[in-house]
Write a structure and sequence with these properties.
298 residues
Amino acid sequence: MSALFRVLRVLALIVVVGLVGLVLFVVIGSERRLGQTYEVTVAPLTLPSDSAALARGKYLYESITCALCHAVDGGGAILDQDRWIGTMAGPNLTSGRGGVGALRTDEDFVRAIRRGVRHDGTSLIVMPSEVFTHLAESDLAALLAHIRRLPPVDREVPPTHFGPLGRALLAAGKLNILVAPKTPGVAAPAAPPSAGTLEYGRYLADVSGCHGCHGHGLSGGRVAGPPGLPPASNLTPTGIGHWSEADFFRAMREGTRPDGSPLDEFMPWSEYRRLSDDGLRALWLYLRSVPPKAFGNK
């Protein structure tokens, strides 16, 4: 029996050492990724104060998904919570209790929006900076001017953090939601294209996240992020070529496909419905212009 006990002790030791090694890999690997810093310099931005620019900033905030993560009032919101994956939340942007508005400079906001980098140089999580980096200078200035004028909201939102499985996926490089390393430095235009044009539709697709989920070619497929996200639909003529403009407007305004079935709740149509008729029409013109592609053929 003593020989059997020795074998069992060796096996137990191997298991313990393996578990300790796995824990160290997860902790050290995830901390290394989360703690990596990025040197980013952003150009100074002059915020407008005229009513037209402020109205434009409010429109952009509410219609291109800022409100989805940070709430319409700017007080922040919890996007998803899972004890194993973690908590994804949009922080309170106001100067109220729990907010960061009074703690961050305009430069901090621009760096976060344009490049996905926090004030301490680490990467933001989930923040769609790879999309917002395309915002025209005038639109970014108007957007930030609106954010700066949001009334204080007293709301303490838990910070985004990872659970054990989330950290393991992050350490293994299987959770591609650190945005700074995948956000390019883009020379954004001074102003957006003329409203109602195909070019404006392309601009809206760039800054509202269409390409982020549906791919550069808009053919759909797997969406980068936590496990369980639904695949994005094919928006090229191969996928929605049978849709009419009225079908597209209904989908964006009501979240309903031509056959009456609902869009997946992951699709933020409840924010996009705030796009103006001119904006939606321009986006429709752009979608009709892209080359047909098979599903997932980005």
